[in-house]
């Protein structure tokens, strides 16, 4: 049974600007495991990764029903890629299944999260 769904559209340039002005932004958004992956990337791919994780966590908080900050924070959600490249939520506050999708264009990243309860 679907508990909640959330979507987000984020401008990649906006994330680049925030990261440039606030160098600790990536550390605030990404868990330690996500940071290790992020540090392996450079240029456009690094920006896409950071914007994608930021957007996916925004989508998650909407699906969870709290928004970021009040009931769930960036560090409460971890999204790692499976060997196939499919993103998977590996850490979360929700007691159920979280489905996540991340897609990019040159300007935007769009994400969707569906939270599913068993039964």
TrEMBL record:
InterPro entries assigned to the protein according to its UniProt record, in alphabetical order: 4-PPantetheinyl_Trfase_dom, 4-PPantetheinyl_Trfase_dom_sf, ACPS, Ppantetheine-prot_Trfase_dom
Top-level enzyme category: transferase
GO molecular function: holo-[acyl-carrier-protein] synthase activity
Hydrolase listed as a keyword: no
Subcellular location: Cytoplasm
Binding site for Mg(2+): 8, 58
Domain 4'-phosphopantetheinyl transferase, chain residue ranges per copy: 5-111
Nucleotidyltransferase as UniProt keyword: no
Cofactor(s) annotated in UniProt: Mg(2+)
This protein's name: Holo-[acyl-carrier-protein] synthase
